[in-house]
């Protein structure tokens, strides 16, 4: 039997029963589309989260007060409270040769008003280094001036949304706003930044760190952002930071230093595993589609007994009959996979239309893996029907008519 004869026989068998073939194609198409869509959503989420972390800065280290540790034994006679991070600690970190910039952070919330407009927004107290450390971009004006970190200048920089809500289309430069009970002169505004890990950078007011400690009546820093000189200096910067703070805190290791690379690697590993997991769950639907193909083909064989008997009567061997039905199930799986890929393209287009800000990235392995899995499932579950057809006796099959 020639190859063209095999494909011609299978094509006529598929087109001769459109309802049966259509149901099998639909089942396989839904499975393939589910694998591609879910793996795309997982990959896109991973890319979104890692991009958000990368936008925080480069070669970044985040210093938090306190340390996670396991304690035991009898309770101490005197209470022990970790020391807070102070502006003095942040200034001391600049002594490390591996550190390029240091940006202490004080965070609070206060009403910001001008004229008859008032808005409750987040207040960030920091230094001039925050602009470079956080990759912020000025829309106009200038950022917090460099100089004495302890000098509480009454100046502020507004985020994009805060400027628009308070001043509309007017230029805010040189005008005054009231933050809490204090007046600040607006010296600049930020370009649109958007959400960053849940914080709307566009809806903030940035003031000098000394002004923020006075405004919120605190000496404690929320955290300190440190930028290492280059990627290879991150480990050395972390060691220097721990040593400097230990010396200032009477030998106590009471801070936590998180490197940006460590955070990125952790999130990347978790989200990549999540992507593979949801793709694997979706692939189960391909196995279900394969079982459907097997059941439908078993029914089809009982309806095509005369056809199989005639094939054997004219000389078709058992191996050739087995091959015919295996090729038929494989072709159905391949056609279903192609339909599934088209369905996934349409689904991605609809999702992109409703969520234009969210970039959808199709993993390179997803279409190939879905197609290969579909063909494997179709072929595997086609073996039993094909074997049953091959075992039919020609005389008995013709006699059943």
From TrEMBL:
Keywords recorded for this protein, A-Z: Cell membrane, Membrane, Transmembrane, Transmembrane helix
Residue ranges constituting the MacB-like periplasmic core domain according to the UniProt record: 21-242
UniProt keyword annotation of Ligase present: no
Any one GO molecular-function label of the UniProt entry: transmembrane transporter activity
Membrane-related topology note: Multi-pass membrane protein
Localization in the cell: Cell membrane
Transmembrane region(s): 21-42, 276-301, 322-352, 364-384
Pfam families hit by this protein: FtsX, MacB_PCD
One GO location term (cellular component): plasma membrane
Domain spans labelled ABC3 transporter permease C-terminal: 281-392
Main location: membrane
InterPro entries, per the entry: ABC3_permease_C, MacB_PCD, Macrolide_Exporter_MacB
Family: Belongs to the ABC-4 integral membrane protein family.
The protein's name in its UniProt record: ABC transporter permease
Species whose genome carries this gene: Desulfosarcina ovata subsp. ovata
